[in-house]
Known about the structure:
The protein is mainly beta. It has one helix at 2-19, and strands at 22-30, 38-47, 51-57, 61-72, 75-80, 84-86, 91-94, 99-106, 115-124, 129-139. A hairpin with a 2-residue loop joins strand 4 (61-72) and strand 5.
Amino acid sequence: MTKQLSALIASIALASTAYAQTTVTEPWVRATVPQQSASGAFMQLRSADAARLVKVTSPAARAVEIHQMEMHGQLMKMREVDGIDLPAGRSVNLAAGGFHIMLVGLKQQLKEGDVVPITLVLERQGGKRESVTVNAPVKPLAYAASKGH
């Protein structure tokens, strides 16, 4: 029994070490007004080794898309992208005006204080996929993240 328990503890420790290859900091989602059907989610991602964010899901929305905003002359354009590269050991900021996550077809109004579960799917070398779920607090409409985040 002791050997089985030790083996179980060792396997849990190994699994959590492998899972910890990606860290997510400062996740948040912008609150919505009644009848608003979409909102943005923002956070910082850091991967121990090179990876790519390839998919995002959330039970709060019908669909979740990875977007990028870019200036084209005097016009800001937003477009869906198929993923975001995460260079090894470097933080990638998902923020308004750049890469971010769009929650589309919201199932209900998002109010300050709510929490939105978001699952990030990352692909690593060799096609290995890792899922990381975060609980992102909903911040007020006028919320501005700390500088650089």
